[in-house]
Structures are given as C-alpha cells and as structure tokens.
Design a protein that fits this description.
- The structure is a single chain.
- The protein has about 325 residues and is of the alpha/beta class.
- It has two domains: about 50 residues; about 260 residues, 2-enoyl-CoA Hydratase, Chain A, domain 1 (Alpha-Beta Complex).
- The chain has 14 helices and eight strands.
- Strands 1, 2, 3, 4, 5, 6, 7 and 8 form an eight-stranded mixed β-sheet that branches.
C-alpha cells in the first residue's frame, strides 16, 4: 500500500465489509454500498489527479502493475519465446519472441520483473544483463529479415550493474542495442509501462512511436540515485524527481514521446485487464499509422526523430 493511498484503502475495506454483511444477511444495503463506491471513485480521481513526480515513481513501481507476461497473455496470440543470445546465456529479465498481434505476426520484447519473491529473483527484478540486450539485437535482426514489426514493453530500474555484467560488456551491449534499433528497417513501437530507467530502458525504446502509461516514468537515473549524487543523500528524492522531468506529462510536453495512455481510475494496478486493453489499442493505432512502410524511409525518419530531440529541448 502506498502512503497516499491510505484513505482509498480504508474506504475500500469498508465497502468490502459491507458487501460481506449484505451477502450474509437479509438487510439490503446496496444503496449504501453504491454511495460509498462513488465516494471511493471520486477520492481516487482527486488523489491520482494531482500526484507529485515522486508519487508517480511509486505508482510506476507498484508490484501489482501488469507485467510483460500479463501483456503477452492479454493481446499476443501464438507467442513463441526465443531464448539465449547465442553467445553466453539466456536472460530472464528481458524475454522476447514471436507472436501475433491482432492476427499480424510480430516480434515482441520486454522487461519482466516478476510478481513474487521467487519469480523476481528468476527475472532479476527486470534488470537485464548483456546477454539480454544481445538477445534483443538477435530478435530485431529476425524482425528485419522477415519484415515483422517490433513491439517493446519497457519496465526496468536500469540494466544490471553487477560485476559479471560489466565484465561481459554491459555498456557495449546497450550501445549496440540502441544502434540496432536505429538501423532496423521495420516499424518499432515502444511503450513505457512502468519504470523506464537509464540505458537499460532506452536500449529497446529507440522507436518510431514511443508511448507511456499515464503514471509511468522515464529518466536517465532514478530519483534516489540522482539525489545521492547531487545532494549526497537519497532523502532529497522528491526534489530530484521534480527536477528530472520524468513523468509522462513532462516528457510529452518536451515532445520526447508520442502519446500518453490513460490509466484506469486509481492506476493500472487497480484494473489490469482494462490497462492491457488500452495499451493494445494504442499499439494497434500506432502500427496502423505506419502500415505499409518503406524500409529506407522508416530508418531516415527514425534518425531524424531522435536528432530533433536536442533541437526541441
């Protein structure tokens, strides 16, 4: 439970208790439940309508937000995971493979954090190692070979900073992945569905269309990391979050992303199915805008898009 959600949680508990009473007794309290539910919805709108940047970071990190596996089950059919970078190992933090999106064959890649302790350890909390980014490059090569669009779902604090990852060329793998995104001659649609942290995120987010969920964040460093560097204390994370301009609203205003996907009232974690449906609808719209495509033209436009970022800022 997030601190600022306490009033909502308390009200939802009361509603749950009333529903239990209603089902176990002859007393009809449906009207009272409806009034309380309406009050809860208004409270969610009020609280989530004025979240601070650091609160949005907390929502983006919420453990119950839909993950890569949830999106795969929600709008990808015939999904076939492809493992390994053909060099060192498989990286469970950055799964990917082939599937069909609305019947259209595609390549889909994304970060997976896991849902419980065991799965989070398996997926390394969504922090990919070099082999994960090299696998992503392999999948993009496959997409280019068979002219399949690429969909990427970003949700990571950043690439894994461990010794082994650095010894195996973490920075080189990220740089090569960014380069591969720029040179892949098929449409790339990227959605920031939670955290978009540092090079670990941008490695698969150099796309023709970049969207963010309403309460997701995208930045070069975490607020805590920024505060530790600039203020020598993570306690200044609130100030850092504001200065970083990491919210979807900030980035859309700076013209660094192409659109914001509205989340259900109270955040994506409160209505996973609706969130997945909205993300799928936005991806469908983005792909339709880019179909059909010209291979040479798509690379030139993508390059121009990212060069323009510096001019806009």
């Amino acid at each position: 439970m997030l601190d600022f959600e306490k009033p909502i949680i308390e009200l939802e508990k009361k509603i749950a208790e009333l529903r239990h009473v209603s089902s176990d007794s002859e007393v009809n309290i449906v009207d009272e439940i409806a009034k309380m539910q309406s009050k809860a919805d208004k409270l969610k709108q009020q609280i989530y309508g004025k979240l601070t940047p650091v609160q949005k970071v907390q929502v983006a990190r919420h453990a119950e937000r839909p993950s890569f596996d949830d999106y795969i089950k929600g709008f990808i059919t015939d999904f076939t995971p492809l493992a390994g970078d053909r060099n060192f190992a498989e990286d469970h933090a950055l799964p990917g493979g082939l599937g069909r999106f609305n019947g259209r064959p595609c390549v889909i890649i994304g970060h997976e954090k896991g849902h419980d302790t065991q799965s989070r350890i398996k997926h390394n909390f969504g922090m990919a190692r070099p082999e994960g980014y090299r696998k992503a490059q392999r999948l993009m090569d496959m997409a280019a070979q068979f002219q399949l669009p690429v969909i990427t779902l970003v949700d990571t604090k950043g690439a894994y900073p461990g010794r082994g990852a650095e010894e195996r060329g973490q920075s080189e793998a990220i740089a090569k992945s960014i380069e591969k995104c720029l040179r892949t001659d098929v449409p790339i649609i990227s959605v920031i569905v939670g955290e978009g942290g540092s090079g670990g995120a941008i490695a698969i987010a150099v796309a023709d269309k970049i969207y963010m969920l309403e309460h997701s964040v995208y930045s070069v460093i975490s607020p805590e990391g920024c505060a530790s560097i600039l203020w020598r204390s993570a306690s200044h994370a609130d100030e850092a979050a504001t200065a970083l301009k990491l919210t979807a609203q900030d980035l859309h205003g700076l013209k660094l992303i192409d659109g914001i996907i509205e989340e259900p009232i109270g955040g994506a974690h409160r209505n996973i199915e609706e969130t997945i449906a909205r993300v799928g609808a936005q991806i469908k719209k983005g792909l339709s805008e880019m179909t059909p495509w010209d291979s040479g033209d798509i690379i030139a436009k993508r390059r121009a898009k990212f060069l323009e970022f510096g001019r806009n800022i």
